[in-house]
Amino acid sequence: MSDNTSTNSRTETYYDDEISISELLMKLWAKRGLIVMLPLLLAGLTITGLIFNKTSQQTVLNYYIELNGISLSATNSDSDSDSDNRITARYPNGLVFSPQDLKNPSVLQPLARKYDIDTDQLAKHVDVDFGTPLGNGVLVEYEAALSANSKASAEALAAINERYQKKLAATARRGLKITVDYVALVTSKEAGQQLAVDLATTWNNVFTTQFKTQINPSTISAGLSRYELDITTTEGFLAADNQLEQVSNGLRQLASDGRLAGLTTEYGVTPSDLIGYLADFRTIYFDPLYVNAFSKAEGLSAIYRRDIQLQLEEISKEIEELSGRLTDIREFRSGSMAPAASSRDMVTSSAQYDGSALNEVVELAERAALSDYLTQTLNARRNLVAERGVLETKLKRIDDSSLSSISISEEFLQSAVARYKDVISSYAALMEAARASLIAETPSYFSPITQPDTSGKLLERRDLLFIALALALGGMLAVIAALIWPVKD
Q1: What is the mean pLDDT of residues 196-215?
Q2: pLDDT tens-digit map of 264-323
């Protein structure tokens, strides 16, 4: 009898510990309002947050453009700066390009007048930086490379990172991202879109016409006189002499540029041809013109002679100072060789790092620095010696008394004037042809990639994933809360 009683009690205890599915369902049904409302509440909060975030982005227009004619070059730098700073963008004439060129006052001022906006406000709410949507593809490729080499060594991962960082920087610098906050500028979205387009167009016009970034600055600086020079007079000859020096420099720039070396005037004259004509002019007509210009004891010729002498004295002092530097460097290097050799022997014979090893490293660094400084000093001294030789030749021409008795015919002077005008007019024609050729080669520094627009729709396809996750999380929390909710008796 007692055995049956104990068996029944154990059976009742066992059934009491079982989970009743019907009881769980009843609990969930009793809290059905919570199970429905909590997921909807979390989904609503998620949608509200997404819309609020996108609404704040809708006030900013993004305009992507691709750069044309702006070349990229790697900067030789051993610093630890990121790869973005190692790539330099340049205009065709070699000047460094910066996105801030689009916010140059010469660019913003006409836009400020057109849209009736203060220039400072325009500069504050318009931003320009390197960037292009094409970088997204490089990012995907970069992430795939990291995933495929997840078990690689640290050195391999570092190499992959450096390679793709350079690729990302180069890709980004092939375009610009123009952002316009049209709400802050108190204008309409349509006006903001047109402002972004006009900003790029105005920058292109200003930097091609006003700043002339399509041709080398040293060539542009060889400008011609606005008035006709009379090279038969002393003052006219001196001005023409300086002008011919500038023309010579400009012709060398044109002849060394592969894009412009083949340019011709309407008479078929190339930069190389004109260099030869200029050399003939100096050989045949220059010395007689020098005699004619300085044959009379005029005040201007005396002043010119004095200026040459002063320049010679100044250059001689600079050459003397550079020669003293070279002597000091030679004495320093000869005096430091012996200590360096003894310290080297000391390091070789000893296995320890002591002060002598550090001294040797410092000595080697000093020698490397002195070697670069020595090269720069020698180059500067050579240039000054060449410049002094040119000035001495000019002074000898002026002081040569044997030439003062030579008479120059009027016919020869007229022929020299005609040759001079021909050289100048040919150079002016080449310059115009060079500008036209470069403008035709790169008619515009940019081409649109996208139209000015906001970052996207209020709710995009990827946002549905966040809403689904919010619904799932709300449902899980609601079920857990319903199950642990105490049941009333």
Answers
A1: 89
A2: 888 889 999 999 999 898 888 877 777 777 766 566 777 878 888 899 999 999 999 988
pTM, rounded to two decimals: 0.56
**What is the arithmetic mean of pLDDT over 411-419?**
87
Most confident residue range from 123-127, 389-393, 435-439: 123-127
Separation of alpha carbons 385 and 103, rounded Å: 45
Q: How many residues does the chain have?
A: 489
- Give helix 32-57 / helix 461-484 axis angle, nearest 10°: 150
In angstroms, rounded to a whole number, what is the distance separating the alpha carbons of residues 59 and 147? 37
CB-based contact 72:97 (threshold 8 Å) = no
366 Rama class: left (phi>0) / alpha (psi -120 to 50) / beta: alpha
Q: How far apart are CA 172 and CA 65, in angstroms?
A: 11
Q: Where are the domains of the chain?
A: 23-58+457-489, 59-218, 296-403
Count of Cβ atoms closer than 10 Å to residue 276 Cβ: 12
Residue type present at position 109: Q
Which pair of tokens denotes residue 22? 């019907």
**Token pair recorded at residue 111:** 């836009």
